[in-house]
Amino acid sequence: MTPETQDPELLEDLIRKARTAGADSADALVARSTALSHAQRMGELEQLEREESQDVGLRVFIGKRQAIVSSTDLGAKALDELVERAVAMARAVPEDPYCGLAEPEQLTREIPDVESCDPVEPSPEDLIERARLCEEAARSVEGVTNSEGAEAGWGMTRVSLAASNGFTGSYRVSSHSVGVSVLAGEGLDMQRDYDFSSKVFAGDLEDPAVVGRRAGERAVNRLNPVKPKTGRVPIVYESRVANSLLRHFLGAISGPSIARGTSFLKDRMGEPVFAEGLRVIDDPHRKRGLRSRPFDSEGLPTKTRNLIEDGRLTTWLLDLASARQLDLEPTGHASRGVSGPPGPSPSNVYLEPGRQSPEEMIADIEEGFYVTEMIGMGVNGVTGDYSRGASGYWIKDGKLTHPVSEATIAGNLKTMFANMTPASDLKMIYGIDAPTLRVDGMTVAGS
């Protein structure tokens, strides 16, 4: 019997036993994962591992009480004990007025194909070759003196969900990745940098040699950095770190933060938050997207939403519990593992690109800071105050000049969002993506 036929029966049996044991309702989740990973350093194999796992989680409700129990043992005796523990816990925990399953009319009716799984498993030799090409290309860059190693990996997970409200569904996700980290220079003057590529399908991966060469060039270009002078200058976020601003935004519109009143955007629904004309899109159905999903973890339908439309905030990210607390409709953003309750999480999110290239964007900057790496997490989610370590390159008369390190950039996210300008170089790399971004009026602290 295959997981495709076994898991629905297993979940239905768990739910039936939970209700027989006294649960008013229940849902259950099974995740089966396989992963293959390889690591090498200086051309020598350091790791080649294969991992297989299976996990089941059962959530039961008795009135307004809920409990969740998980197990890696899918044997009949272990599952019976799982049901007993879950029901006993649900009788003992405090009430949660917002917990509960979706109503049948809220459930998704169609499960779209989002092409979230590459059916071909790579061989160990495939991963070894990807990592070899990546590291060799990085080490061949003049000025690279050492390697922290190259890695290549693959993983596949099948998720199956069922609930007593009638929902049942499953889908598979896969990922292929390759990356390398190298050092340039000698002694105390060494600098490190990295690069990687991660895709759902192997055929979409960047050429490992291109990834490696880029990592080596980045490390060499960082040699001999200086501290910047302190002052207020335009900050330009390279595209690979620009998505950090989107992540702060997504955290600020998460339903639980809004319900608790702990977000600096809690009173901004329908108001301008980003600069006029900007749009932030959440697209769970993007073909081969790293965060695509055909339904959410509560069985609700997912759909494309413009989180920001013409600069205005249009929605929160809501699961059922936070939607009930706010007296709103859920948005299909629930996500969960086998051992915890659902919570809202975005899918493929991106900020639409602008019209200027990064070079055109910085052409009028007399003095500024081009940020390529962020350090620390100095962000206050309640006030929006922002202060993070950064390194990159100084901008002088519209050009990148010397490398910069040991800098701190500071501002407030409310002001930063309102003064944000996107470049035209959007690439779908991380699942949460932004083009190069320029933010005027921030402070750089250095020497």
TrEMBL record:
Gene3D superfamilies: PmbA/TldD superfamily. It holds the Pfam family PmbA_TldD_2nd. SUPFAM superfamilies: Putative modulator of DNA gyrase, PmbA/TldD (SSF111283). InterPro entries: Metalloprtase-TldD/E_C, Metalloprtase-TldD/E_cen_dom, Metalloprtase-TldD/E_N, PmbA, TldD/PmbA_N, TldD/PmbA_sf. This is TldD/PmbA family protein. Belongs to the peptidase U62 family. Residues 230-446 form the Metalloprotease TldD/E C-terminal domain. Residues 118-223 form the Metalloprotease TldD/E central domain. Residues 26-90 form the Metalloprotease TldD/E N-terminal domain.
